[in-house]
Structures are given as structure tokens and as C-alpha cells.
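> run fold Glycosyl transferase
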Amino acid sequence: MKFSVVIPCYNEVNTISEIVTAVRNSPLESVEIVLVDDGSTDGTRELIQTVIASRVDRVVLHETNQGKGAALRSGFSAATGDVVIVQDADLEYDPQDYPKLIAPFLSGKADVVYGSRFITGDPRRVLYFRHYLGNQFLTFLSNVFTDINLTDMETGYKVFRREILAKITIEENRFGFEPEITAKLAKLRPRIYEVGISYTGRTYEEGKKITWRDGFRAIYCIIKYWLK
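> ok
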């Protein structure tokens, strides 16, 4: 079984090299890394082109910033693995968790795996209570429409069999990707598993990008892609 890791990044000059190293040093013996720079302006692109490109398998460059969904759309198209792992570039999610994420695939039980930050005994950095409430509300609302009982719809760790991704057209360009793909997966009725993961969240001062506007967009997407 071949694994592809798709890393979307935008203005992550302080973390991009470290996350690529972490993926290369993960417990997966053979992994294809697809790195998508989404129009970075802080030196990330230059670092990728001069230093990091030789350490990954494919580099996709967006000329302008389009958003996480757009970056993943490009990355999924470039990935060739049997199983595709989404890996954020900001060090919030640890590639050492890959064995837990891929175990349901190796046992032949899963088509999709979500890494949950809320069903784990692993370390989790304590940060914004309002983000926790927002996440729980969005997950609850998504579950109401999809009739699947996720605990963490907004998780950054989502893993898919490639044939499942091939059945989905991603329309959202920004963080609306999360509720969109969840709604579209629910309609396909694949075998979805959740596994507990560690989580080292970061503050806005440290570079966190999601805002309250993305929360309202998520509500819109939950309804839109279920009714569509």
C-alpha cells in the first residue's frame, strides 16, 4: 500500500522545513510527499524552491493565495498513493500519529479516517475555549445533517482511499473544505473511522489563520452541500 501526504501551506516559512522533516522521519517506511504552496509571500516559496524541493516528491505552486481547499484540490490531483493523508504545515498535527491513522486501512476496515482531538488520551495543548465551543457546534450541526456521529469534523487530519477522493469534486477554496468533504463523504456512505490523535494548537500570534468568518462559512457549507 502506497501512502501520499499532501501538505498545503501558506506563509509558513518558520515551520515548513520542520514539518517536511517530520513527515520524512515518520514511522511510514515509504511515503510520497506532495507540497502545495498557496501563493506564499513571506519567503516560504523561495525556501521551497531552493532548499525543500529536493526533499519532497512533488511541488505545486499557486501564483496567488486561494485557500486551503484550493491547495488540497491541487495536491489531491498530484498524489499517486493508494491512501492520501492531509498534513497541515503548521506543526499542530504530529506525523508520529500516522500509524494510528493508517491502522484501519491496513486491517481492511476503513475507506476514510478522521483524527479526533477529543477522543484521545494523548497530549493536547490548552488554548481558546471559544474555538472548542465553535468546533463542537459545527461538528454537532454537521452530524445532524449527515447522520454520522463524528466527534471532530474540523480536524486537520483526514485520510482517504484514493478511489474515494476520485468520486468527490472539491468546490470550496478555503476552510469550507472540511464541512464540504464531510457532507459529500456521508452521501457516498464509505466506511469512516475516527482515531485519537495528539494536538499542539497555536495562537494567532504564532500564525493561526482560521477566523470567525470561516465559522459562518462552515455553517453555510454544512447546509449547502447536504441539500445540494
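The chain has one domain: 3-126+154-173+191-206.
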